[in-house]
Design brief:
- By secondary structure, this protein is mainly alpha-helical.
- It has one domain (5-113).
- Helices cover 79% and strands 0% of the residues.
- It contains 6 helices and no strands.
- The protein has helices spanning 5-22, 26-31, 39-43, 46-65, 68-86, 92-113.
- Helix 1 (5-22) runs antiparallel to helix 6 (92-113), helix 4 (46-65) runs antiparallel to helix 5 and helix 5 runs antiparallel to helix 6 (92-113).
- The radius of gyration is 15 Å and the shape is elongated.
- This is DUF3307 domain-containing protein.
- InterPro entries: Phage_phiKZ_Orf197.
Length: 114
């Protein structure tokens, strides 16, 4: 783990925003939805885009926490949250709140294990 305490929480949140807004291209954001109708969707299925995006997030969490388990949990939760958003079952705000609550949960769990 590269950081502890409040610094780790800050890095988890910053890492989330980097993954969602810095490292996610417009193409990835559009194509990770099964409802995309672009020509690219015919050659690269939506779940590949969603998987790539969530694996980026899992990698960030793993690097910051030193826990592959938390990285894998992040991949699963992030995939579900983004799928719900792509299905219009949640809003962008609800999606982001879910992601931030996940990071808070990781941080609280890690505080208990330090």
């Amino acid at each position: 783990m590269i950081a502890q305490g409040g610094t780790l929480l800050f890095l988890l949140i910053a890492g989330h925003f980097l993954g969602d807004f810095g490292l996610q291209s417009d193409t990835m954001a559009r194509e990770k939805s099964r409802h995309s109708t672009t020509p690219l969707q015919r050659s690269v299925p939506w779940y590949w885009w969603l998987s790539a995006h969530t694996l980026i997030h899992g990698g960030i969490v793993t690097l910051l926490t030193g826990s592959g388990l938390l990285g894998m949990i992040e991949v699963g939760i992030h995939a579900i949250a983004d799928w719900l958003k792509c299905e219009n079952r949640t809003t962008l705000l609800q999606d982001q709140i879910l992601h931030l609550l996940t990071k808070l949960g990781f941080w609280l769990w890690l505080l208990q294990t330090m």
